[in-house]
Each structure stands twice: as C-alpha cells, then as structure tokens.
Input
Amino acid sequence: MDTLTRGLAEFINLSAKGAVHIGLLGRGIGASLSPVMHRREGQRQGLDYHYHLIDFDALGLGDHDLGDVVALLERVGFAGLNITHPFKQSILSHLSALSPQAEAIGAVNTVIFSSDGRKGHNTDCWGFAESFRLGLPDVSRRRVLQMGAGGAGAAVAHALLEVGVSELDIFDVEGARAAALAEQISSLGKSAKAVSSPLVALAGADGVVNATPIGMTKYPGYPIDPEALSPRQWVADIIYFPRITPLIEVASARGCATLPGSGMAIFQAVRAFELFTGRAPSRDDMARTFEAAA
Output
C-alpha cells in the first residue's frame, strides 16, 4: 500500500471545495482522449472539473491493487471513475450496486461514488449503439461476427442486438468466455453462439466487430486476417487510439464500409459526464473536442 499511496500522491490532498474529480482506471491509457473531452465540457459548463489518468502500467500497479485504488480515490473525495481495459469485469466485486443495464451486461465502465456506496453503470452499450446507428445506418444486420467477449465485448454484444442484429457469432481466444457471453445473450431470447473458427464464421457474416484490444498501440496486429474480408462486409472497431486501427485501414482499402471506435468513445463519454455531474453535456461540443485532439 505504501507504493500505491506514493504513486497516487497527487490525489491525496485535493484542493478547492466543490471541485469535481474523476479518474480513468486502466492499462496503457496514456493516449486516451477521455480527459480532454471531460475537462473541456466541464469548463464549458463552468465547473471546476478535473479528470485524472490512473494508468496501472505507468504507476507499476498490479491487478490486485484495483480494490485499494478504488477505495483510496473514494476516500480522498473523487466523485466517480471511468473504467477501461482490463478492469471492466473485475471492478464488479468492488462495487455495492449496479444499474439494471450494467447488471444485465455484467460489465461496468462508469462508477459513481455517493453516500449510498459505489454504483456501477455501463455507458459503453449506448455509446456503441448510438455510434452504429449514425455511422452504419443502412448495413445488413442478419449475421455478425464479434471478436472478443470481455468487458467491452459484453456491452457491444448487447448493443448489436439493440440495433437489430439477428444472429451474433462470438469468438474469443478464451473459448469459455465466448460461451458464457453467448449463453447470457441467449437467455434473453436472442440468437447468439460461440464459435471456434472466426474465419469460418466470417465467411457467412454481414459484418465483423473488433471488441478485443488487438490493434491498440500496446497490442499491435489484427484480430482477424483482414485478407479474408469481402467488400460486401462492414467492419467496426471499438479501439480509437490509434484512431484508425490497422483493421479499419485495411478493411477500408478492401472496399468495406467501416466504423472506427471514435464514435463509441465520444458517446460513452457523453453519458458518463451526465452521470458524474447530473448535467446534460453537449454531445456536439464533446465530439468537436475529440476531433480536434485526435
């Protein structure tokens, strides 16, 4: 705990009564644009609003430190937290309550601290669905292949069904995780199954979504062989740093309709800001801030 306290020393003595302090917990998040979106919107609304990156890699923290970090930030007066890879599911055991959507999805990306405890929310689901509705409004949605069944993948799977996907094939390198997510989706009366061969599933898919970290600066590469993509298919990615991932770049070059992760990043932040402050943010202003910073 001494190492943890030293690493987070800048947050121990928060000044300015009435200031709003938010943290983003994750690994390899130095390129995140969440801080600038939140800070600028806070300034626009006249708030003393602070958004801190708490990168477990940069601070030398282990996954086992998650509970202590959350407790420390709550104790020193943070209003809430955003949660990103790889903690969207492991955070659940450190919360006292979940919103209905977060409970249904089984993953959290936003935590609110209050006198009632720590409540987890999921704004990723709405963020991806809204981005999809705007960015790929006319694509076929009969069958979709989703790569990745982690915390972000769970939110994306629910969002895909929300926007009208009829059949969802799910692949994850951890087969049991894909099977668990498919079973959860099926229990809601929707059509979903885990697949063991993504390339076989891709052949019959109208589109593919990357919900893995592969393609991030920290995890270079492709989640699936891009040479197997057909121009008739669409491709979506939830990664936004880099803004245009290798998958999106190759898919676009092959003639596929594409959806980069920037839309999801913007819209999940819009909903999270409202939860943190109780104020309706300007989605247009937050989007402009993102575009200017990207």
